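Below is how a single chain appears once it has passed through the pipeline. First comes the sequence as given, then the structure the pipeline wrote out for it. We keep one example in the README because the format questions we get most often are answered faster by looking than by reading.
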Amino acid sequence: QVQLVESGGGLVQAGGSLRLSCAASTSILNFAAMGWYRQAPGKQRELLAIITSGGFTTYVDSVKGRFTISRDNAKNTVYLQMNSLKPDDTAVYYCSAREVVDWNYWGKGTLVTVSS
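Resulting structure:
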């Protein structure tokens, strides 16, 4: 069973930065892509960023230029560097792995709270 474990969340002031990590229990090269999602209270889960096995990245417009997704294949870890954080970024952040088409595996999430 694949396990994904997120870490790095916490409380930060607006304008600050955090780096989230997602450690996988297996080689992340087994997956076509890794992604970061978030879910704010009362809102649907939204996809923020994707990184493919080849290193290609895509971002949702709301985080483009502020967030950076990266991967360390040797450590089986994916990162999300978040800069210029805003109160609207407050949410639970989830890591996910995609084998082919579907996002098959999910972590339990890490809470990010941005104070104004």
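The mean pLDDT is 97.

See the next section for the split statistics.
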